[in-house]
Amino acid sequence: MKRAERLQDLFIGIAGLIGAGKTTLARALGEHLGLPVYFEPVTDNEYLADFYRDTKQYAFATQIYLLNRRFQQHQEIIWRGGGGVQDRTIYEDAVFAKTLVNQDLMDERDYRTYLQLFRHMSNFMCRPNVIVYLDLKPESSMERIQTRSRDVESGIGMDYLRALHREYEDFIHDIARTVPVIRVSWEEFRDAHEMAEVIEREYLNGSFLRDAEWRPTRGV
User: Does 170 participate in catalysis according to the annotation?
Assistant: First the structure.
């Protein structure tokens, strides 16, 4: 009963490079824990093809679109109750935005506007209970992108993936200060349901809550 109570409202975020296997693991975690899954908007993303065709022109519009969609998912997870598994968190959007501006693919002014909007939206957000980071080399990310052969991803280059990986490392280091992060080596595909059990065990064995103790300074 205690175990069930700890898991029934769990908000899990799955983080990782493009092609890491986030969707597969998110689906398995949802089935394993009985939680709804919120998938990354790909097939219905009306900006994605334009973004990969002309990244610099569509970078800002694409980032705003994704920020809006993920904020919508985030709010639904919170307000509907019962927890959920999110395939890429809203916090990772800033990783992509920073990579774009560093590679001169997004205007500095647009980036500042993006960050201001994100900070305003963050006042209405609740952080995930845990983030699962699928650690993957950029070279492996490229191999998996090529294997799944999505037309819109055909223009992704190694320089972009390496830059993205560096930003991810900084992101994980920073967010781990406030959100528990389970880092999983994902160089080799593993059974997703087995990994769901590992992640569940690691979370349950962790203690992220401290009991407050104090001595009364006056009588009741």
Answer: no
